[in-house]
Structure formats: C-alpha cells, structure tokens
C-alpha cells in the first residue's frame, strides 16, 4: 500500500468499537513476547502498527501477517536499539508508511543478571544502550510527530521501583532510568496534550523469563497472586493507556505484576 493511500485510511476518527481506529503506533521489539502481544492488541483495537526487531525477522513477519489476516495494517522493520540511525529511521519509516504517528511503545529490552562486580563494560553499554538510550532517542524522534492525544508508553520492570534482587543492578538501573524519562516527558509534552507513562511488568511468561525457568517458582511466589502473568496482561494495560481511557493519565508508573512484593 502506498503511504498516501494508507494515510487516508488512518485519518478517520475511531469507529466506536475499535478505539484506536485512525491511529498509528510504533512498538519496539514487537517480534515476540510482550512486544508481540502489544502489537497484536493495538492492531485489534484498530491502530496501524509498525514493529521493530533485531534478529527475529521471520517472527516479526509472522506478526505482520497475523495482523493483516485480521484486516489490519502492519509493517515490520529491523532496527537494533544499539544503532541510533536505525532507531530514528524506524520512527521516520512509520510516519512515511502510515502518514502519522500517535503511539510510541518503548518495549524492546534486554537483561544481564549477575554479581555487580562481574558486570563488564560491554554489558553496561549494551543494556543501557537498549533499555535507556534507545527509548530516549525514539521518544525524541517521535515527539516531533506526535500531536495532541499522542502517547509515549515505556515498558519498565518491577525491578525498577518495587523490589531489588542481588544480581539485578544493571537491569534495575536501566529500568529505573525510564522513570526519570517518563516523568520529565510528561511535564515537557503535557502542554501539547501528549502523555508519557511507564508500565512495570512483574514475571511474565516470555523467552526472557519463561514460566518454567530456573527461578520461576521463586518469582511466582513473590507475587500476591502466586502466579506468572501473560504478555497479554501487559498489552491490556498498554491498550488502556493508548486509548481514551489514558487521556488523563500521565507521568505514571503502573505495575502489572500480580502484586509483586506488596
Ligand atoms: P523477550 O526477550 O521475549 O523479547 C524481546 C524483544 O525485544 C524481541 O522482540 C527482540 O527482538 C527485541 N529486542 C531485544 N533487543 C533488541 C535490540 N537491541 N534492538 C531491537 N530489538 C530488540 O522479552 P520480553 O517480551 O519478556 O520483554 C519485553 C520488555 O518487557 C523488555 O523491556 C523487558 O525488560 C520487560 N520486562 C519483561 C519481564 C518478563 O518477565 N518477561 C518483566 C519485566 C520487564 P528479536 O526477536 O529480534 O530478538
């Protein structure tokens, strides 16, 4: 589809049953796990969805096919979070493709868990590059295109604010940085009617943290519900923030963690 034709299709107002009809979203790391669930959910709610990946081209294309089979619009683009040019190009590409950008979801993330003193400089650069620098740059690039009603939603972690585990220094540091980014963006962009929020998942069954992994029982045991969550649980909260229900929520950190460490 051409950019022009797509623009026409995405500038109509919401159709009442699909609250994001007419909106365009960019989801980083949308090829699997939580990002995939968010991409599918935003598309089901009517948004045209661009999703980025690093290595998972086949998986990303499957997500696009799934959205298109359901009658939606989607586009997958390789954009390693460590590559600033690629991050900027993914934002520009979304606008070219869909004629607009309304919702940025900073989801892609990596974790390195291990004793503080053993964390290498490469690890520091890779984790902060993916989890902090890329969301910062993507938000900066997106802010140039977002208009009133625009949304920046970042995926943090319960390890940023709610709980501390030995071995989690680098990951927790990176996710805590998103609190500063989100709150300050809420202030800077609020006058333009743009919101910025943070969603903190607890243990969610994905490749990063499988529910049958070594520490899974321990993690589930820390939650009030005594269970892992699903990627779709996080996606439901992102969809709420992205839609009209999120109109008056900004600068917030919302836990989707089954009551982790309450
Ligand atoms: P997964 O490892 O299952 O998926 C990660 C996604 O991010 C993939 O789509 C992957 O793409 C992409 N990605 C990873 N690194 C890069 C990069 N450098 N550039 C571009 N894309 C990249 O993770 P989850 O779905 O579990 O996690 C999603 C987010 O949720 C992360 O920010 C994570 O920190 C956070 N989170 C997850 C929790 C959990 O329990 N699962 C708990 C708390 C927070 P590709 O397929 O190409 O590799």
UniProtKB/TrEMBL annotation:
Keywords: Oxidoreductase. The keyword Oxidoreductase applies. The keyword Protein transport does not apply. It holds the Pfam family adh_short_C2. It comes from the Bacteria. Residues 1-22 are annotated as: Disordered. Residues 1-11 have a biased composition (Low complexity). Residues 23-207 form the Ketoreductase domain. PANTHER family: OXIDOREDUCTASE, SHORT-CHAIN DEHYDROGENASE/REDUCTASE FAMILY (AFU_ORTHOLOGUE AFUA_5G02870), SHORT-CHAIN DEHYDROGENASE_REDUCTASE FAMILY PROTEIN. This is 3-oxoacyl-ACP reductase FabG. It comes from Streptomyces nigrescens.
